[in-house]
From TrEMBL:
Protein source organism: Methylocapsa palsarum
CDD domains reported in the protein's UniProt record: ENR_SDR
InterPro entries associated with the record: Enoyl-ACP_Rdtase_NADH (IPR014358), NAD(P)-bd_dom_sf (IPR036291), SDR_fam (IPR002347)
Name listed for the protein in its UniProt record: Enoyl-[acyl-carrier-protein] reductase [NADH]
Gene Ontology process terms (BP): fatty acid biosynthetic process
Source domain of life: Bacteria
Length: 264
Protein backbone atom coordinates (compact mmCIF):
# COMPACT_ATOMS: atom_id res chain seq x y z
CA UNK A 1 0.00 0.00 0.00
CA UNK A 2 3.09 2.18 -0.03
CA UNK A 3 2.15 5.82 -0.62
CA UNK A 4 -1.18 5.22 -2.39
CA UNK A 5 -2.96 7.52 0.09
CA UNK A 6 -0.19 10.10 0.42
CA UNK A 7 -1.65 13.58 0.85
CA UNK A 8 -5.18 12.23 1.50
CA UNK A 9 -7.22 13.05 4.58
CA UNK A 10 -9.85 10.70 5.89
CA UNK A 11 -12.41 10.28 8.66
CA UNK A 12 -12.69 6.88 10.35
CA UNK A 13 -15.95 6.17 12.21
CA UNK A 14 -16.53 3.03 14.29
CA UNK A 15 -13.23 2.42 16.03
CA UNK A 16 -13.93 0.69 19.36
CA UNK A 17 -10.71 -1.22 20.13
CA UNK A 18 -7.72 -2.90 18.51
CA UNK A 19 -9.91 -5.76 17.24
CA UNK A 20 -12.21 -3.40 15.30
CA UNK A 21 -12.26 -3.64 11.51
CA UNK A 22 -11.91 0.16 11.65
CA UNK A 23 -8.51 -0.39 13.28
CA UNK A 24 -7.33 -2.68 10.46
CA UNK A 25 -8.45 -0.06 7.94
CA UNK A 26 -6.94 2.86 9.84
CA UNK A 27 -3.57 1.08 10.13
CA UNK A 28 -3.48 0.28 6.41
CA UNK A 29 -4.61 3.79 5.43
CA UNK A 30 -1.96 5.37 7.63
CA UNK A 31 0.65 2.99 6.27
CA UNK A 32 -0.39 4.11 2.80
CA UNK A 33 0.29 7.73 3.77
CA UNK A 34 -3.13 9.07 4.81
CA UNK A 35 -3.78 11.59 7.54
CA UNK A 36 -6.64 10.40 9.76
CA UNK A 37 -9.33 11.71 12.09
CA UNK A 38 -11.43 9.53 14.37
CA UNK A 39 -14.78 9.68 16.10
CA UNK A 40 -16.03 7.24 18.70
CA UNK A 41 -19.39 6.46 20.24
CA UNK A 42 -19.76 7.41 23.89
CA UNK A 43 -17.22 8.74 26.33
CA UNK A 44 -16.51 5.25 27.69
CA UNK A 45 -14.71 4.37 24.44
CA UNK A 46 -12.47 7.41 24.62
CA UNK A 47 -9.80 5.71 26.73
CA UNK A 48 -9.46 2.96 24.12
CA UNK A 49 -9.73 5.07 20.99
CA UNK A 50 -7.47 7.98 21.96
CA UNK A 51 -4.24 5.95 22.34
CA UNK A 52 -4.94 4.04 19.13
CA UNK A 53 -5.58 7.26 17.22
CA UNK A 54 -2.40 8.79 18.60
CA UNK A 55 -0.43 5.71 17.56
CA UNK A 56 -1.36 6.64 13.98
CA UNK A 57 -0.81 10.40 14.52
CA UNK A 58 -4.57 10.83 14.06
CA UNK A 59 -6.84 13.62 15.24
CA UNK A 60 -9.48 12.66 17.82
CA UNK A 61 -12.69 14.51 17.02
CA UNK A 62 -14.57 13.12 20.01
CA UNK A 63 -17.93 11.50 20.46
CA UNK A 64 -20.24 11.08 17.48
CA UNK A 65 -23.54 9.21 17.65
CA UNK A 66 -24.54 8.57 14.05
CA UNK A 67 -28.24 8.56 14.96
CA UNK A 68 -28.03 12.15 16.19
CA UNK A 69 -28.00 14.76 13.39
CA UNK A 70 -26.51 17.42 15.68
CA UNK A 71 -23.68 15.08 16.62
CA UNK A 72 -22.94 14.38 12.93
CA UNK A 73 -23.10 18.10 12.11
CA UNK A 74 -20.60 18.84 14.88
CA UNK A 75 -18.19 16.19 13.55
CA UNK A 76 -18.24 17.53 10.01
CA UNK A 77 -17.96 21.17 11.18
CA UNK A 78 -14.86 20.15 13.08
CA UNK A 79 -13.39 18.48 9.98
CA UNK A 80 -14.10 21.61 7.97
CA UNK A 81 -12.40 23.68 10.65
CA UNK A 82 -9.24 21.58 10.88
CA UNK A 83 -8.86 20.43 7.26
CA UNK A 84 -11.24 22.45 5.06
CA UNK A 85 -11.83 19.46 2.79
CA UNK A 86 -11.98 15.69 3.07
CA UNK A 87 -10.79 12.90 0.72
CA UNK A 88 -12.35 9.80 2.23
CA UNK A 89 -14.70 8.47 4.87
CA UNK A 90 -14.69 5.00 6.44
CA UNK A 91 -18.01 3.93 8.00
CA UNK A 92 -17.62 0.88 10.26
CA UNK A 93 -20.79 1.26 12.27
CA UNK A 94 -23.60 -1.20 12.99
CA UNK A 95 -25.88 -2.02 15.89
CA UNK A 96 -28.87 -4.19 16.75
CA UNK A 97 -30.41 -5.42 19.98
CA UNK A 98 -28.42 -8.55 20.89
CA UNK A 99 -31.59 -10.32 21.99
CA UNK A 100 -32.80 -10.27 18.39
CA UNK A 101 -29.53 -11.54 16.88
CA UNK A 102 -30.55 -15.01 17.88
CA UNK A 103 -33.63 -17.09 17.22
CA UNK A 104 -36.01 -16.11 14.43
CA UNK A 105 -36.03 -13.02 12.20
CA UNK A 106 -39.81 -13.14 12.13
CA UNK A 107 -39.88 -12.11 15.81
CA UNK A 108 -38.06 -8.78 15.24
CA UNK A 109 -39.82 -5.83 16.89
CA UNK A 110 -40.65 -2.68 14.94
CA UNK A 111 -38.59 -0.66 17.40
CA UNK A 112 -35.45 -2.76 16.93
CA UNK A 113 -36.03 -2.98 13.18
CA UNK A 114 -36.12 0.83 12.94
CA UNK A 115 -33.13 1.33 15.18
CA UNK A 116 -31.04 -1.33 13.44
CA UNK A 117 -31.76 0.20 10.03
CA UNK A 118 -31.12 3.71 11.35
CA UNK A 119 -27.72 2.90 12.87
CA UNK A 120 -26.54 0.30 10.37
CA UNK A 121 -27.92 1.63 7.09
CA UNK A 122 -29.29 5.18 7.14
CA UNK A 123 -26.28 6.53 9.03
CA UNK A 124 -24.08 5.92 5.98
CA UNK A 125 -26.40 8.10 3.91
CA UNK A 126 -26.47 10.74 6.66
CA UNK A 127 -22.65 10.71 6.62
CA UNK A 128 -22.56 10.92 2.81
CA UNK A 129 -24.82 13.99 2.85
CA UNK A 130 -22.35 15.83 5.03
CA UNK A 131 -19.13 14.45 3.55
CA UNK A 132 -20.20 15.39 0.00
CA UNK A 133 -20.01 19.08 0.94
CA UNK A 134 -16.37 18.67 1.96
CA UNK A 135 -15.33 16.82 -1.21
CA UNK A 136 -15.16 19.49 -3.93
CA UNK A 137 -12.38 17.54 -5.68
CA UNK A 138 -14.04 14.15 -5.43
CA UNK A 139 -13.56 11.47 -2.82
CA UNK A 140 -14.14 7.91 -1.71
CA UNK A 141 -16.59 6.61 0.89
CA UNK A 142 -16.52 3.09 2.23
CA UNK A 143 -18.84 1.03 4.41
CA UNK A 144 -18.72 -2.52 5.76
CA UNK A 145 -21.23 -5.22 4.99
CA UNK A 146 -21.63 -8.98 5.35
CA UNK A 147 -22.77 -11.88 3.19
CA UNK A 148 -25.84 -12.21 5.42
CA UNK A 149 -27.22 -9.39 3.23
CA UNK A 150 -27.31 -11.73 0.24
CA UNK A 151 -28.11 -15.11 1.78
CA UNK A 152 -29.82 -16.31 4.90
CA UNK A 153 -27.43 -16.86 7.81
CA UNK A 154 -28.37 -18.25 11.21
CA UNK A 155 -28.91 -15.53 13.86
CA UNK A 156 -28.01 -12.61 11.57
CA UNK A 157 -31.71 -11.78 11.25
CA UNK A 158 -32.57 -8.07 11.12
CA UNK A 159 -28.91 -7.21 10.60
CA UNK A 160 -29.05 -9.12 7.30
CA UNK A 161 -32.02 -7.02 6.26
CA UNK A 162 -30.16 -3.84 7.29
CA UNK A 163 -27.04 -4.89 5.34
CA UNK A 164 -29.17 -5.62 2.25
CA UNK A 165 -30.54 -2.07 2.51
CA UNK A 166 -27.02 -0.75 3.09
CA UNK A 167 -25.75 -2.48 -0.06
CA UNK A 168 -28.64 -1.04 -2.08
CA UNK A 169 -27.87 2.39 -0.65
CA UNK A 170 -24.24 2.03 -1.81
CA UNK A 171 -25.57 1.75 -5.38
CA UNK A 172 -27.96 4.70 -5.07
CA UNK A 173 -25.34 6.91 -3.42
CA UNK A 174 -22.80 5.91 -6.08
CA UNK A 175 -25.17 7.07 -8.83
CA UNK A 176 -26.06 10.31 -7.02
CA UNK A 177 -22.51 11.35 -6.22
CA UNK A 178 -20.63 9.91 -9.20
CA UNK A 179 -21.01 13.17 -11.12
CA UNK A 180 -18.93 14.86 -8.42
CA UNK A 181 -16.29 12.13 -8.72
CA UNK A 182 -17.23 10.81 -5.30
CA UNK A 183 -17.05 7.02 -5.23
CA UNK A 184 -19.11 4.83 -2.88
CA UNK A 185 -18.14 1.24 -2.18
CA UNK A 186 -18.52 -1.48 0.44
CA UNK A 187 -16.37 -4.33 1.63
CA UNK A 188 -18.25 -7.50 2.45
CA UNK A 189 -15.94 -8.93 5.10
CA UNK A 190 -15.87 -12.54 6.19
CA UNK A 191 -16.57 -13.17 9.88
CA UNK A 192 -13.98 -11.72 12.29
CA UNK A 193 -14.09 -11.88 16.07
CA UNK A 194 -14.86 -8.30 17.14
CA UNK A 195 -17.01 -6.65 19.80
CA UNK A 196 -19.94 -6.30 17.37
CA UNK A 197 -19.59 -9.92 16.22
CA UNK A 198 -19.77 -11.20 19.78
CA UNK A 199 -23.39 -9.99 19.84
CA UNK A 200 -24.34 -12.49 17.14
CA UNK A 201 -25.68 -15.82 18.37
CA UNK A 202 -23.35 -18.80 17.89
CA UNK A 203 -20.68 -16.64 16.23
CA UNK A 204 -17.98 -19.22 16.89
CA UNK A 205 -19.89 -21.73 14.75
CA UNK A 206 -20.20 -19.22 11.88
CA UNK A 207 -16.47 -18.50 12.07
CA UNK A 208 -15.54 -22.21 12.04
CA UNK A 209 -17.96 -22.97 9.21
CA UNK A 210 -16.29 -20.25 7.12
CA UNK A 211 -12.81 -21.45 7.96
CA UNK A 212 -13.60 -25.00 6.86
CA UNK A 213 -15.55 -24.11 3.74
CA UNK A 214 -13.96 -20.96 2.27
CA UNK A 215 -11.73 -21.60 -0.76
CA UNK A 216 -8.70 -20.28 1.15
CA UNK A 217 -9.65 -22.59 4.10
CA UNK A 218 -9.30 -19.85 6.70
CA UNK A 219 -10.94 -16.67 7.95
CA UNK A 220 -9.74 -13.17 7.11
CA UNK A 221 -7.97 -10.65 9.34
CA UNK A 222 -8.64 -6.98 9.97
CA UNK A 223 -5.28 -6.31 8.28
CA UNK A 224 -6.48 -8.00 5.09
CA UNK A 225 -9.72 -6.05 5.12
CA UNK A 226 -7.66 -2.93 5.85
CA UNK A 227 -5.40 -3.33 2.83
CA UNK A 228 -8.34 -3.93 0.49
CA UNK A 229 -9.97 -0.86 2.02
CA UNK A 230 -6.85 1.23 1.36
CA UNK A 231 -7.15 0.25 -2.30
CA UNK A 232 -10.82 1.30 -2.46
CA UNK A 233 -10.05 4.59 -0.71
CA UNK A 234 -7.16 5.38 -3.04
CA UNK A 235 -6.95 6.57 -6.65
CA UNK A 236 -5.83 3.04 -7.59
CA UNK A 237 -9.53 2.14 -7.59
CA UNK A 238 -10.63 5.32 -9.40
CA UNK A 239 -12.66 3.34 -11.95
CA UNK A 240 -14.67 1.52 -9.26
CA UNK A 241 -17.89 2.72 -7.63
CA UNK A 242 -21.10 1.12 -6.36
CA UNK A 243 -19.12 -2.07 -5.77
CA UNK A 244 -19.47 -4.65 -3.00
CA UNK A 245 -15.99 -6.19 -2.72
CA UNK A 246 -15.93 -9.54 -0.91
CA UNK A 247 -12.91 -9.87 1.36
CA UNK A 248 -13.91 -13.22 2.77
CA UNK A 249 -11.30 -15.82 1.72
CA UNK A 250 -13.64 -16.54 -1.20
CA UNK A 251 -16.54 -17.87 0.90
CA UNK A 252 -19.21 -16.12 -1.19
CA UNK A 253 -18.55 -18.34 -4.23
CA UNK A 254 -19.23 -21.55 -2.33
CA UNK A 255 -22.46 -23.40 -3.04
CA UNK A 256 -22.09 -26.46 -0.84
CA UNK A 257 -20.27 -27.71 2.23
CA UNK A 258 -16.74 -28.90 1.56
CA UNK A 259 -16.98 -32.70 1.92
CA UNK A 260 -13.47 -32.75 3.45
CA UNK A 261 -14.44 -30.27 6.19
CA UNK A 262 -14.58 -31.70 9.71
CA UNK A 263 -17.77 -31.48 11.79
CA UNK A 264 -18.01 -28.45 14.03
P1 LIG B 1 -16.79 -3.15 16.40
O1 LIG B 1 -17.65 -3.46 17.56
O2 LIG B 1 -15.35 -3.03 16.63
O3 LIG B 1 -17.31 -1.85 15.65
C1 LIG B 1 -18.67 -1.47 15.60
C2 LIG B 1 -18.68 0.02 15.89
O4 LIG B 1 -19.98 0.58 15.68
C3 LIG B 1 -18.26 0.36 17.32
O5 LIG B 1 -17.14 1.21 17.29
C4 LIG B 1 -19.48 1.10 17.87
O6 LIG B 1 -19.13 2.11 18.78
C5 LIG B 1 -20.07 1.67 16.60
N1 LIG B 1 -21.45 2.13 16.76
C6 LIG B 1 -22.56 1.41 17.05
N2 LIG B 1 -23.63 2.22 17.16
C7 LIG B 1 -23.20 3.49 16.91
C8 LIG B 1 -23.80 4.76 16.91
N3 LIG B 1 -25.13 4.93 17.17
N4 LIG B 1 -23.04 5.86 16.62
C9 LIG B 1 -21.71 5.73 16.35
N5 LIG B 1 -21.08 4.54 16.35
C10 LIG B 1 -21.81 3.43 16.65
O7 LIG B 1 -17.10 -4.34 15.34
P2 LIG B 1 -16.68 -4.56 13.80
O8 LIG B 1 -16.94 -5.99 13.55
O9 LIG B 1 -15.36 -3.99 13.55
O10 LIG B 1 -17.80 -3.72 13.02
C11 LIG B 1 -17.52 -2.76 12.03
C12 LIG B 1 -18.42 -2.97 10.81
O11 LIG B 1 -18.04 -4.18 10.16
C13 LIG B 1 -19.91 -3.12 11.13
O12 LIG B 1 -20.66 -2.47 10.14
C14 LIG B 1 -20.10 -4.63 11.02
O13 LIG B 1 -21.45 -4.98 10.73
C15 LIG B 1 -19.19 -4.91 9.85
N6 LIG B 1 -18.84 -6.31 9.62
C16 LIG B 1 -18.31 -7.05 10.63
C17 LIG B 1 -17.99 -8.38 10.40
C18 LIG B 1 -17.43 -9.23 11.50
O14 LIG B 1 -17.47 -10.46 11.40
N7 LIG B 1 -16.87 -8.66 12.54
C19 LIG B 1 -18.19 -8.95 9.13
C20 LIG B 1 -18.72 -8.16 8.12
C21 LIG B 1 -19.05 -6.84 8.37
Amino acid sequence: TSGILAGKRGLVMGLANNRSIAWGIAKAARDAGAELAFTYQGESLEKRVRPLALELDGAVLGHCDVTDPASLDATFSEIERIWGTLDFVVHCVAFSDKDQLTGRYVDTSAENFNNTLLVSCYSFTAVAQRAEKLMPNGGSMLTLTYYGAEKWMPHYNVMGVAKAALEASVRYLAADLGGSNIRINAISAGPIKTLAASGIGDFRYILKWNEYNAPLRRSVTIEEVGESAAFLLSPMSRGITGEILHVDAGYHIVGMKNPAAPDI
